[in-house]
């Protein structure tokens, strides 16, 4: 029986994880569930899965959740705030931590889980992109186990010989090929990209996901973050990580070996497959996913990403090559710009402009501690807000200066 802390249980990955867990009550139990603001949904989940702990963002949220739980006869205890997230991530009550909080907010509890030697099922790619070597050092030093939930990295993990993520590249590997759907704007007239609305950007053709990652998929910043994630997980330099657009999202990624073999993992685009793989690893369990019908799909196509259409992808490669704090700055700037876009405060095309502007202007340095990461995160956010403010008043000039 595996006992789970599920960080970010009310999100898209959280819901898919609980769907798989509910199919196997004999294998998995829930120790803790966490959510930021959605205490209604968290209360429902607590009634169904009976965790020992539930954590929300604020004291008010905790009071509201507690009232709902007591009314429903639930004995789940309630905590709130970042310290409580760390507590449930490192608690001895769970052996496995599913890291499914979106963005930088997931870093502290995910790192705490690594330091407590847990098995970490990692969806929160931003945490690894920000902290890179620090995170992997914590995993190694405390004998934690890292299993990727991100579908591409989970696919690569499945195509590699058995190994520990973060333990270096396998000698026979030539390169890894991350597939990308190309998102909703793959064929849209580039002259109209500035008119894209948040509603259009979050409508992904193949995957149903949270709002932030959906925008990242549209700009292909998601693939850029995944390139950095793959670098850390599989120990390959940027030159040996390739991105290939594959609009059907059936091949979830590939590993090319030196002897010419290319291994791929295929499946319907449903996150319950990588989640079930990582939850049950090394066993295989039923995930509720439709069997793949290749005859019905008939055609799988591939194309190279258009760098002019997807500038965020090139920015992520540049940050990875630069090293040090550049990836954390890229991530922070992107989070701020995407939030502004989703709130209707800036244009879709400003996302790449703001990220490029922050990477250009920020003072890059080496990462020696978590404090270095948090400091660059703060600086990059402040700079991104400044650029966004300038963009609102003088959109043309800022776009010109940051390019
Ligand atoms: P989502 O927006 O649907 O859910 C996010 C979860 O994080 C929610 O439970 C929310 O309550 C919690 N959260 C948000 N802000 C928080 C904060 N400040 N403090 C604490 N908790 C907070 O997002 P998602 O689509 O489930 O994605 C989660 C993570 O998984 C992201 O890092 C994403 O990149 C990654 N991921 C998602 C998918 C997918 O298919 N959705 C696939 C691969 C990777
Ligand atoms: Mg992915």
UniProtKB/TrEMBL annotation:
SUPFAM superfamilies assigned to the protein according to its UniProt record, in alphabetical order: 1-deoxy-D-xylulose-5-phosphate reductoisomerase, C-terminal domain, Glyceraldehyde-3-phosphate dehydrogenase-like, C-terminal domain, NAD(P)-binding Rossmann-fold domains
Chain sites annotated for binding 1-deoxy-D-xylulose 5-phosphate: 125, 151-152, 181, 204, 217, 222-223, 226
Pathway it works in: Isoprenoid biosynthesis; isopentenyl diphosphate biosynthesis via DXP pathway; isopentenyl diphosphate from 1-deoxy-D-xylulose 5-phosphate: step 1/6
Domain called 1-deoxy-D-xylulose 5-phosphate reductoisomerase C-terminal: residue spans: 146-234
Organism: Pararobbsia alpina
KW Magnesium (keyword) present: yes
GO MF entry, a single one: manganese ion binding
InterPro entries hit by this protein: DXP_reductoisomerase, DXP_reductoisomerase_C, DXP_reductoisomerase_N, DXPR_C, DXPR_C_sf, NAD(P)-bd_dom_sf
Its EC number(s): 1.1.1.267
Name by which UniProt lists this protein: 1-deoxy-D-xylulose 5-phosphate reductoisomerase
Family membership noted in the UniProt record: Belongs to the DXR family.
Any one GO biological process: isopentenyl diphosphate biosynthetic process, methylerythritol 4-phosphate pathway involved in terpenoid biosynthetic process
Gene3D superfamilies per the UniProt record, alphabetical: 1.10.1740.10, NAD(P)-binding Rossmann-like Domain
Domain 1-deoxy-D-xylulose 5-phosphate reductoisomerase N-terminal per the UniProt entry, residue ranges: 4-132
Reaction equations catalysed: 2-C-methyl-D-erythritol 4-phosphate + NADP(+) = 1-deoxy-D-xylulose 5-phosphate + NADPH + H(+)
Pfam families: DXP_redisom_C, DXP_reductoisom, DXPR_C
Domain of life of the source: Bacteria
Cofactor: Mg(2+); Mn(2+)
Binding site for Mn(2+): 150, 152, 226
Keywords assigned by UniProt, alphabetized: Isomerase, Isoprene biosynthesis, Magnesium, Manganese, Metal-binding, NADP, Oxidoreductase
The DXP reductoisomerase C-terminal domain, residue ranges: 266-382
Gene: dxr
């Amino acid at each position: 029986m595996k006992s789970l802390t599920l960080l970010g249980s009310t999100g898209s990955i959280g819901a898919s994880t609980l769907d798989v867990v509910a199919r196997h009550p004999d294998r998995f139990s829930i120790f803790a569930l966490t959510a930021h603001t959605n205490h209604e949904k968290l209360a429902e989940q607590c009634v169904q899965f009976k965790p020992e702990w539930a954590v929300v963002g604020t004291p008010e949220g905790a009071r509201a959740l507690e009232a709902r739980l007591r009314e429903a006869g639930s004995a789940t205890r309630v905590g709130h705030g970042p310290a409580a997230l760390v507590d449930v991530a490192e608690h001895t009550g769970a052996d496995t931590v599913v890291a499914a909080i979106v963005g930088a907010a997931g870093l502290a509890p995910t790192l705490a889980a690594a330091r407590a030697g847990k098995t970490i099922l990692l969806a929160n790619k931003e945490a690894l992109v920000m902290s890179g070597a620090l995170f992997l050092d914590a995993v190694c030093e405390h004998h934690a186990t890292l299993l990727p939930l991100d579908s591409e990295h989970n696919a690569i993990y499945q195509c590699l010989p058995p190994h520990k993520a973060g333990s270096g590249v396998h000698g026979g590997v030539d390169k890894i090929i991350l597939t990308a759907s190309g998102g909703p704007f793959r064929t849209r007239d580039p002259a109209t990209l500035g008119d894209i609305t948040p509603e259009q950007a979050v409508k992904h053709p193949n995957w149903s996901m949270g709002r932030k990652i959906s925008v990242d998929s549209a700009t292909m910043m998601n693939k850029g973050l995944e390139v950095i994630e793959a670098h850390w997980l599989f120990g390959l330099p940027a030159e040996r990580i390739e991105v290939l657009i594959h609009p059907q999202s059936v091949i979830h990624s590939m590993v090319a070996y030196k002897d010419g073999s290319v291994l791929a993992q295929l499946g319907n685009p449903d996150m319950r497959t990588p989640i079930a793989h990582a939850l049950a690893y090394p066993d295989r369990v039923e995930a509720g996913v439709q069997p793949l019908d290749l005859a019905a799909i008939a055609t799988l196509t591939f194309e190279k990403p258009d760098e002019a259409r997807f500038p965020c992808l090139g920015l992520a490669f540049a940050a990875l090559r630069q090293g040090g704090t550049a990836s954390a700055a890229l991530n922070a700037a992107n989070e701020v710009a995407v939030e502004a876009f989703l709130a209707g405060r800036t244009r879709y095309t400003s996302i790449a402009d703001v990220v490029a502007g922050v990477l250009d202007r920020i003072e890059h340095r080496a990462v020696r501690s978590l404090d270095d990461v948090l400091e660059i995160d703060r600086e990059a956010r402040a700079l991104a807000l400044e650029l966004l403010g300038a963009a609102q008043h003088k959109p043309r000039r800022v776009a010109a200066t940051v390019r």
